[in-house]
């Protein structure tokens, strides 16, 4: 032990000059100040992280509410027994970004899943999150007892028309919803089953999952209980494969965050394959089976991919139907274009003479997606492709959302970009 102390003394003090030794007390003070500041900042970050965690993550409240309604016979669903009786559906890691929209990774019969439910009504009903509020009074109020099957079908059809538009394919969607609601497969829909499916349809993401269920670029719905629903887990929930934690984003410079993303990003050919899938998704929601859909928050955190590098839309809550946007814009007072913004970036033009919003979204999905893809695709792109790729992305980003330009021009730009990428990776191990 004496030898170790002597060695430490030699290392610390022998190489230091007398001039530096005379300044050592000052250096020690500065060093202590920096250490203290580091501890203070670290403690503050940790405190903010965990306080926001307790605010955002209330899965126990969600489970308590759902199981309370299930035991009362108010709601039903394909996962109720597993959640509330057998406990084979378990909450694990909190992924919530809002206290009213609970998102958790979980295990269901030993398979990784995503669990989602809303507790907005619960929070309004009682300030104590550990009490069981009368959520059934607010959310599970329709249909009422005595509603016939024909009346329920009419309710569903009218609801779909108001949200998706008067599409010829809505009758088939109503049949699909009825079949989904019939959990016990007895050919009938009980009041609890009807209340559950009606509550689920009020959730934008669930409605869009049903509308886009035939598409391979959305998460598969695995089951539900009341308005809690379970989807498949997408292995990579960010376009770059990894994301800087939310509590560090405000501390790290943008350049450092970008370098981190590029470091964890897939190889360029894999990124090209993911991009092709993303362009196909844009194509699918433009004049789809159930109308037009708009991506109203274009962020790499809302899109991801699976282990085969197939594109997957992670967060459908950021996608809106054309009817929803038109309803929001209709008769809306405005002074400038920003007053006509639905979500984060679905913006229409403000008629400054009439002081009202127009109905056409200025920037289409494809232009916003190309803006997102610019850094993603150009980084590490093959030299013989980079110039043409940059040119096509620039053309794509200037697309207008006006109806006169949307049809032919939109399709042409999208197909040109897909073809350019596909030619580069086709007939390779990446295709």
UniProtKB/TrEMBL annotation:
Pfam families: PIP49_C, PIP49_N. It is a single-pass type II membrane protein. Keywords: Disulfide bond, Endoplasmic reticulum, Membrane, Signal-anchor, Transmembrane, Transmembrane helix. This is EF-hand domain-containing protein. Its main location: endoplasmic reticulum. SMART domains: PIP49_N. Belongs to the DIPK family. One of its GO terms (cellular component) is endoplasmic reticulum membrane. Residues 169-204 form the EF-hand domain.
